[in-house]
Amino acid sequence: MIIREATIEDAPEIHRINISSLDYHFPIDQTTKQIQKILSLPNSKLFVAANDDNKVLGYIQTSDYENTYHKSLKNIITLAVDGNHQHEEIGSKLIEHAEQWAKEDGSYGIRLVSGFERKSGHKFYDKHGYEIRKEEINYIKWWN
Predict the structure, then answer these.
(1) Cβ–Cβ contacts within 10 Å for residue 1, how many?
(2) Average pLDDT value over all residues in the chain
(3) For site-directed labelling of 143, which of 91, 115, 126, 128 has its Cα 20 to 30 A away?
(4) Which DSSP helix (H) or strand (E) runs through 65?
């Protein structure tokens, strides 16, 4: 298995993982457009874990997290592993790779938000040294 930066050719596999592991049913054409956008952003990274046949087994998306009340951080937007390959250390390798990139890029730490219902994810983050900072409610307002 290798960890590498994603390419637009990974869109179908990322789309599949979004559905099977996260239950996010976003259309493939929109997923592809979003990946193109993410890959073009200067302070975002999209890393994939791929097997020897270059099949994507998981991915992690990170970006800058800047605000006025603490030092620069990175933000894990998404970490997802194919359900058929969970408990194979793929998530661990992805998060370790993202943390290394964040350190090299000069951030002081890394943060994330995890849904209340994702109990196995919480155990995973605990295992990797992440601490609960606060509980919150996530709001969104759509324009269309």
Answers:
(1) 13
(2) 92
(3) 115
(4) strand 56-65
**115, two tokens:** 């849904």
Q: Answer yes or no: are the C-beta atoms of 27 and 75 closer than 8 Å.
A: no
Reported as a single tens digit per residue, the pLDDT across 27-69 is 999 999 999 999 999 989 999 999 999 999 999 999 999 999 9
Selection from 19, 112, 20, 23 nearest residue 62 by Cα: 112
74 dihedral zone (left: phi>0; alpha: psi -120 to 50; beta): beta
* Cross-sheet strand order for the sheet of 110-112: 2-5, 44-50, 56-65, 73-81, 110-112
Instruction: Read off the pLDDT band of 71 (50, 70, 90).
Output: very high
Tokens of 64: 């800058």
| For residues 91-112, average pLDDT | 95
